[in-house]
Amino acid sequence: MITPRQLAVLTLLTLVWGLNWPVMKIGVTGYPPLSFRAWSMWFGLPLLGAALLAMRVPFRVTRREWPQLAVLTVTNMLIWHVLVVLSVRELSSGRAAILGFTMPIFSALWGRALFGQRLGARQIAGVAGAAVGVALLLWHEMAHLAGRQWGAIGMLVAAAAWALGTQQLRHTTMTAPTLTLTFWMTAATTLVMTLLAALFEGSIWHLPPASVQWAIAYNAVGVFAFAQAAWFYLARGLPPVASTLSVMLIPVLGTVSGALWLHEVLYWQDAAAMVLMVGAIASVLWPERATTRSVELSAER
C-alpha cells in the first residue's frame, strides 16, 4: 500500500523525470553528451550535499559497506548515465524514454531469476501490459531505428542495468540512510563521468550555449538534487514490482512533452500504449479488497 508521502514524491518524480527527456535531448544535441552529464552532476552534487546537511543526515558509510556501495553505483547510476546520454542523441526523446522504461520488465525478470520473487496475477498483468505498451510504441519506430541500432541497444542495456541495480538496492544489507547512499553514488559517478568526458571529449570542449546551460541547470536541480534521491527512496520503500511499474507514467509524459516541445510526431500506437501503461500502474497500486482477504482467511480456518 503506497503512503500519501510516497504518492507525493512519486508525483513530483514523474513530472521532473518525464519533462527531462526533451530537456536532455536539447542538452546532448547542443553539447558533447558526456560533458553535459558531468556538468549537471557537478552542479547538482553540492545541492544534494546541502540537503543532507540541512536534514542532518550522516555522510558516513562504514568501510565494510564500501564494496556494496561500489556495486550499487555501477548498476544504479554509472551504466545508466553513460549509456543514456550517448543513446538519446541518436533517438527521439520520446522513444529514448520508452526504451529506458522497459526497466520494469527487466526488474521483474531479475527479481525472479536472482531473488526468487513470485509474481501475483495482477503483477503479471501489469508487466504484460507494460511490455505490450512498449512494443506498440516501438512498432512504428522500427524502420526509423535502421542505422541507429546502437542507440536503441544502448538504452535497453541501460534499462537492464538499472533494473538490476533497483533489485540490488531493494535487497541491500547496508544500514546507511538512502540519502547517504545517493550522495556517494552520485559523487563516484561524477568523478568517472568527468574522466570519460576529459578522455573522449576534452578536445572539443567549449562554453555551452544558453539552451544547454538551461538544460544543465534543470538536470542539476531536478535530476541530481531531487529525482535520484526520490527514486532510491521509492525503490527501498515500495515492493519491487510496485516501485518500478509505478513510474511507467514517466515515458508517457516524456513522449507527449517531446511531441509538444520538440515537434516529435505521435501516432495511434502512442495513445494505445498510454492506456496500457496507466492500467499497468493501477494493477500494482490499487489496494487489495479487505473483504476478500477476510473471506480467504476464514476459509483457511
Concise summary:
78% of the residues lie in helices and 0% in strands.
- Note the quaternary state here: single chain
What is the N-to-C order of secondary-structure elements (H for helix, E for strand)? Answer: HHHHHHHHHHHHH
What is the mean pLDDT?
Answer: 86
> Beta-sheet strand percentage?
under 5%
Which geometry do the CA atoms define?
A: globular
Largest sheet: none
Q: Output the number of helix runs.
A: 13
Structural class: mainly alpha
Low-confidence stretches: 290-301
Total strands: the figure is 0
* Count of discrete domains: 1
Radius of gyration based on Cα positions: 19 Å
- The share of residues in helices is over 70%
- N-end to C-end Cα span: 26 Å
Structure description:
This protein has one domain (4-285). It is globular, with a radius of gyration of 19 Å. The protein has 13 helices and no strands. The protein is mainly α. It has helices spanning 4-29, 33-54, 66-88, 93-100, 103-115, 121-139, 149-170, 178-201, 210-237, 240-245, 249-262, 268-285, 290-300.
Layout of secondary structure:
Elements: H1 4-29, H2 33-54, H3 66-88, H4 93-100, H5 103-115, H6 121-139, H7 149-170, H8 178-201, H9 210-237, H10 240-245, H11 249-262, H12 268-285, H13 290-300
Helix pairs in contact: 1-4, 1-9, 1-11, 2-3, 2-8, 2-9, 3-7, 3-8, 4-11, 5-7, 6-12, 7-9, 8-9
Question: Main attributes?
Answer:
301 residues, mainly alpha
